[in-house]
């Protein structure tokens, strides 16, 4: 039996590069070598672009080298249709620029893969996006002379999950790629966040591919350029948090609140007042473990949230992929 303690199980669980950068900054200081960041904010929509350019930076962040864009909209849960339209437009503009950055041409063939389980609401993001995507490949195959300018061949598939099909999503996608030979894959999946306020209000775009099931800790074969042989862009939205993360965040919020009221927070919180975040999370998980699993939690309004965010992503993709769709007025296509 090894005397080494596996600390990985006690680390803060997040799929967002932005949150990984925040944690790394808190631990290593303001500057992380080989990691570039640019932040823009406009009327409630915050866009953070992170480029991980070196192996050293990737190791500190715990992320693969690549380009990451995070769109944060804290008010997105308020069912504001005007805001949703603006988010879809911003997403379309950012995604179109991302395609240019990766060297994707206007007529390159695209395969959209909606990962996840359509029977489980917080995991149904991918299939819902596929439902609302403008697919055009069959027109190019059957009636190419009738296709107007400004459209590209786009196909889409929701391969299901291993528990339903008995087949790994990556194996299904590999078979499709070999048959139809797309130039680009766009994979959409649900993620996990360490911050409650980012659940259902944040969209991440990355050029590193995706691993189905990663949001809930499942290890699956990935959809990556190394495996599939073509560029693979990942789009993810955090739809869940771990119960241990929520408890840990609640303790930190209590600590912050008490600090505003008194200088002697240690009298109220005891050792929790000084213990580092990872150590506190380890303590929370240790307490929760005898009760069973570390539950995965999603907001009760998830049915509405998931429909809205899927519609935003699908509308933005339709505009970004097809030149004929106005990227500056996506709201005209979202309802």
From TrEMBL:
HAMAP family: Germination_prot
The EC number(s) this enzyme carries: 3.4.24.78
Gene it is expressed from: gpr
Entry comment on modification after translation: Autoproteolytically processed. The inactive tetrameric zymogen termed p46 autoprocesses to a smaller form termed p41, which is active only during spore germination.
UniProt family annotation: Belongs to the peptidase A25 family.
Prosegment residue ranges: 1-15
Protein's GO biological process: proteolysis; spore germination
One Pfam family from the record: Peptidase_A25
Domain of life: Bacteria
Catalytically driven reaction(s): Endopeptidase action with P4 Glu or Asp, P1 preferably Glu > Asp, P1' hydrophobic and P2' Ala
GO MF annotation list: metalloendopeptidase activity
Keyword terms, alphabetized: Hydrolase, Protease, Zymogen
Annotated protein name in UniProt: Germination protease
Keyword Hydrolase: yes
UniProt function note: Initiates the rapid degradation of small, acid-soluble proteins during spore germination.
Subunit structure, interactors included: Homotetramer.
